[in-house]
TrEMBL record:
GO terms for cellular component: mitochondrial DNA-directed RNA polymerase complex. It comes from the Eukaryota. Residues 1-228 form the DNA-directed RNA polymerase N-terminal domain. InterPro entries: DNA-dir_Rpol_phage-type, DNA/RNA_pol_sf, RNA_POL_N_sf, RPOL_N. Pfam families: RPOL_N. This is DNA-directed RNA polymerase N-terminal domain-containing protein. Gene3D superfamilies: DNA-directed RNA polymerase, N-terminal domain. The lineage of its organism: Eukaryota, Metazoa, Spiralia, Lophotrochozoa, Platyhelminthes.
Length: 228
């Protein structure tokens, strides 16, 4: 039934766990003082970036210089914390899903005329339910939304605004230049794509283009793309 949106339960559990992992990572950075340190380094970088006359030409060189100027603080901006395995993400997602599945309900009589003798009459139903896959070769469950709730949503004509992940939206401040495969782009969020860099060692006074992986003139690239 195409009217009932559905998603694989295992995929949903994995995505829930990954979101919790991302939130925990931000929480750990906050408690370790990494976010405060990042603010200090970014202020130096922003001063380089917005200077009327730039002493440093390339954004990557600006960021590396800002890191160097703040290196004596002793706080690493890239701690080696182990990444959660898929099994852990699934376990965490399972617990969250169980809470949603058991407690997320709605009143199916909400749009029906009230009974004068019993105005508070309710008939609660779960928002989510599960069905088995139609594929005989793969026995797995799919999560679907209650058809009555979907019917109300479509009849209301008030579709909610699209909501995007922060990593899929334009930034309001200059992005961090890529200096390795882990650091670059967004300030806190990670990215699934990175630009390959052969060399990441910065030497003061050296040509910034020497640390780049490009095999052609770097000055021919629009600066807005230098952070990619």
């Amino acid at each position: 039934d195409t009217e009932l949106q559905h998603v694989s339960r295992s995929l949903f559990l994995l995505q829930l766990g990954e979101r919790v992992e991302s939130a925990c990572l931000v929480w750990r950075k906050q408690n370790a003082g990494i976010i405060d340190e990042l603010v200090n380094v970014y202020k130096i970088y922003a001063d380089f970036f917005t200077a009327p006359k730039r002493k440093l030409e390339h954004f990557r060189e600006m960021w590396l210089r800002a890191l160097q100027m703040n290196a004596e603080s002793g706080v690493s901006l890239d701690p080696e914390w182990p990444k959660w395995s898929n099994q852990i993400c699934m376990m965490v997602g399972q617990e969250l899903y169980r809470i949603l599945y058991d407690h997320l309900t709605f009143n199916t009589r909400a749009l029906k005329p009230q009974d004068p003798e019993n105005p508070h009459l309710r008939q609660d139903a779960p928002v989510l339910f599960e069905v088995t896959s139609d594929d005989p070769g793969a026995a797995h469950y799919e999560i679907r939304v209650h058809p009555i709730l979907l019917k109300w949503y479509k009849a209301s004509g008030r579709h909610a605004s699209l909501v995007f992940n922060p990593t899929e939206l334009p930034m309001l401040c200059p992005p961090l230049p890529w200096i390795d495969t882990k650091q670059g782009g967004y300030l806190l969020s990670s990215s699934d794509a990175t630009r390959f860099i052969r060399k990441t060692t910065y030497f003061p006074g050296a040509d910034a283009a020497a640390d780049d992986d490009l095999d052609f003139d770097i000055s021919m690239i629009p600066r807005v793309l230098d952070s990619l």
